[in-house]
Design goal:
Radius of gyration: 20 Å
Number of strands: 13
Helix content: 25-40%
Structural class: alpha+beta
Distance between the termini: 50 Å
Strand order of the largest sheet: 4-5-8-6-7
Largest sheet: 5 strands, antiparallel
């Protein structure tokens, strides 16, 4: 790990002042990287140990960001940026009103990591592409302009949607898949003021700038995440995660699904987002619209899956080809919708609950 300085400002303005804005985005493996904010550090410190991230300074924001969780008079859920994933998943109001979020968090990482990982930091996780972590291989995300070692090679974990000729990496978060489905909003602050970013616009596809994961500006700090009321979706939701081993593994494909079914048995609204398939959580509102007014049948769910996966393209070669993910994702969507229809269940740490 390279040398760095450490500061712990006492207030938000002090934290923003401590951030030295370089005016650009140097390659992640360059010798002159800008300072970074840190809260839980569960991903950033790993990147630093591997030599992938080399910030000149760490600015500890644990004491300047709110950790609390609250529900407003209008029914909006507010997650403090410094709140830990474990506390969020266990919060009674989250489990009652936004159980899909709790399910997704509990599907991610280990209890120890969830105890440390912050809500804001979860949004800023970097890809777990093994080429990105291997300093001996070219990687446009780590060092722009050097090439993408994953294209045409071992790509089982890589994207089937939204990829570019410069990068086929996937976003690793489980929490973010649920936040995408629930139409969250990210609140950020800089010395220029406050800004709200719709979750659909927060993460970006690689395009020709694969090293830029989000639309967060270099001088901005995430202060909170809000979710609109979703009472009609709470009773029928499911987070399905398909992985190569039963625990402590990132998703090959994950699905956040929620349904609002009317008294007549027909679907009034549906939300579906995919993880493990793109550079960002993948959601297509036009696909969800296909279910409005439809009966909740497997055929209807499959039609949704086909539309959601439109344009999917396999990557890699030989045994490393990920064509299987296209079929896997289609089947996972149908299965997740079936599970959501059956009723919300939250399982974790020996507990099992069913939403009313």
């Amino acid at each position: 790990m390279n040398p760095f300085t450490y500061t712990a400002p006492r207030d938000l303005e002090g934290a923003l002042s401590a951030l030295s804005v370089t005016g650009g985005r140097p390659p992640v493996n360059s010798a002159a990287q800008p300072p970074r904010f840190v809260a839980g550090g569960t991903n950033l410190l790993d990147l630093m140990k591997e030599g992938v991230a080399r910030p000149a300074a760490l600015i500890d924001v644990n004491s300047v960001l709110e950790p609390g969780i609250s529900v407003s008079d209008t029914g909006e859920l507010r997650l403090g940026a410094a709140g830990r994933n474990a506390a969020t998943a266990r919060h009674a109001q989250v489990r009652a009103g936004w159980p899909l979020l709790a399910q997704a968090i509990l599907a991610g990482a280990s209890p120890q990591i969830r105890n440390m990982a912050s809500n804001a930091g979860n949004l800023l996780q970097r890809t777990r592409c093994h080429y990105f972590y291997d300093l001996a291989t070219p990687c446009n995300k780590r060092a722009p302009g050097t090439g993408c070692s994953a294209i045409g090679q071992l790509a089982r974990q890589h994207a089937i949607l939204g990829a570019s000729e410069h990068c086929i990496a996937t976003h690793p978060s489980d929490m973010c898949v649920a936040l995408a489905a629930l139409e969250a909003v990210v609140h950020v602050r800089s010395r220029r003021g406050d800004r709200r970013i719709d979750f659909a616009a927060f993460h970006r596809l690689p395009g020709d700038l694969p090293d830029v994961d989000t639309t967060l500006e270099a001088d901005e700090l995430i202060t909170a995440i809000t979710l609109p009321p979703a009472p009609a979706l709470a009773a029928r939701s499911a987070y399905l995660k398909v992985r190569e081993r039963a625990s402590y593994a990132f998703a090959l494909v994950s699905v956040a699904a929620a349904l609002d079914v009317g008294p007549d048995g027909r679907i009034r609204a549906a939300r579906v987002a995919l993880g493990g398939v793109a550079h960002k959580p993948w959601r297509v509102p036009e696909a969800e619209a296909l279910l409005q007014g439809a009966e909740p049948t497997d055929d209807a769910f499959d039609a949704l899956a086909v539309r959601l996966l439109e344009g999917a393209q396999a990557q890699g070669s030989g045994v490393g080809n990920n064509a299987f993910k296209i079929t896997l994702a289609r089947r996972a969507v149908v299965r997740a919708m079936q599970q959501a229809l059956a009723g919300t269940r939250i399982v974790g740490a020996g507990e099992e609950e069913t939403a009313a």
